[in-house]
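subagent[fold] <- orchestrator: predict structure for attached chain, return tokens only, no commentary.
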Amino acid sequence: MKNSHLNTFKETSQRKRSSSGERNLMRYSAGGGRVSKTSSFTPQMIKLESIASVKMPLCTRGELHKLSQLELVCLEQGCSDQYKLICAYCRDTMHKNHDVRSIKYMLNELIKYLYDDETKNVMNDDIHKQFKHMIDCIKEIKEQLLILEQKIKDSEIKFQRDYIDPINRERSIVESLIKQISKGSNNQTSVNECLHNLFKYVKPTKDSFMIEKESQNFNIQSIEKQTMLFQGRLMKEIEQLSQTIKKTSQATNYNIMTFYSEEHEYLLEDKADTIILSRESDILHLEPITTKVLIKDYVSDVFVFELQKYKQLISFSIADIQKQFQNSDTIHRISQIIDRLPQSIEKLSISLAWDKDLLDEDILVLFQNINHSKFPYLKILDLDFGNSSLAISVLTDKSMIFLANSISSFQDSLWVLNLNLYCWGLSNIALTDKGVKTLVEGIGQLANLAKLYLNLFGWGEQKPEQISDRAVKELAQNIRELHNAQCIELDLGCWGEKNPSVTSKSLKYLSDMIDSLYFVKDLSLNLNYWANKNTKMLDTDIRQFFKSMMNWKHLQKLYLNIQDWEEISMVLKHELSQAVKVNLNNPNIKILIDNQ
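subagent[fold] -> orchestrator:
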């Protein structure tokens, strides 16, 4: 059995997840893989079956036509029968070389398009969401402008009070003293007294005299200049926003120009408002509104870079880039790409696979540009590193510091975090409780997180005692801080296998955690192999764990994997799982035990 599920690790680590959306349709299998949940019948299938069974009317054009159904339509420009039904004999005799299509095929294709969930979502939810986002931004700008307006008014009042009013008062005093001197010019004492008072307000210059307040460092031309600059910048920003909105309303997909050469070294450079990915003798040009760029290398696998600017979605994946490249070279290239992505993106998705060891320094370089300062509007962060499990044997707990710092920087903005570190402990003896503690402390700071997917399957597999009750305790304590979470998926498979450091206490930590997550509606927990050759998993404590599950009535969906718990009997597992299902009386409760 041991060799069997180790092989599963290796096979799974070589597969890439097709999209982050699969997580809503897939669940864990015994070996850390996934099994799909599919519907056997859909409205689309009903429509397609009805179209297939439709009998079209017979052609009335003549004796040779009358047995043929009108199953075709002519689309030829200039044809007298354009967009009209014709039969097969019509096609062969009167519509040779015309653009003739099957009416049923056309209807089938239109039905597929109409029932395509992705198309409906783009046409409805995503577009409305983006326009609403722009409206919200404008509202926020309006609020900021009102605050700015009030600050300008306050500055005007302060300027009047601190400068203009004192000058006017001094001008009045100086004017009065001048009149007194003029009237008392024959009285020396009176004139001396007036002069004495006058020089309290007058400052002599090299060639003239001026009122003291007006001699201070003040220049009306400076204010006029700053006002003009402010007005110019404000109008420029408004014009840029207007152009962006105009482009958004006209956004469409553009074809990508790709040119291939024999060169293999990838370079990255900027040009105007486009992103350029180039090799020495060829350029792949990404227009500002481009949907996807696909760079194929004839020697290695495929490099995919997607940019949907106005949907604010960025995702890219790398598979086995050039054997002669060091990982660090590729990591720096990826980091450069990330650094040049627009700040406005709301989703960032990265999938990596390596055939050489990653270093702690590589993790630092990769995540140095993934932070809130760089992406202040990021809502969804999808990191799939599960395919790197055979190439991280030299990573240490230090790498978790860099990863945690990146994640925790989004503490107020992130809504969804998908983090797949599947089997990072398969051949690693340097990732320990300390690394888990650092990672989950970063996750625990995500105050607005609504959905968490965390896959740490196989951690401690090389050296089981690396992962202990302390790691589970830290994980549970920090997950409890996610007060806004509604969906949590945790894959901790194999943590307890042959590992006396993971005891029944860990089940208690997890149970208490779930009890406190009142707002979580959907919970998935993979604990397979936990009680496999682990004598510290006691029957009494396992019974208590299942008993506590009966209090989880706040859950609308529960998925629990306890396959390969060889230390407890099959009868007991069936008994306990059935008791939970009966007590919760919820059809969405799924508990996986052996042979399921």
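orchestrator: received. Logging for downstream: The CA atoms of residues 357 and 415 lie 31 Å apart. Residues 117-183 form the longest helix (67 residues).
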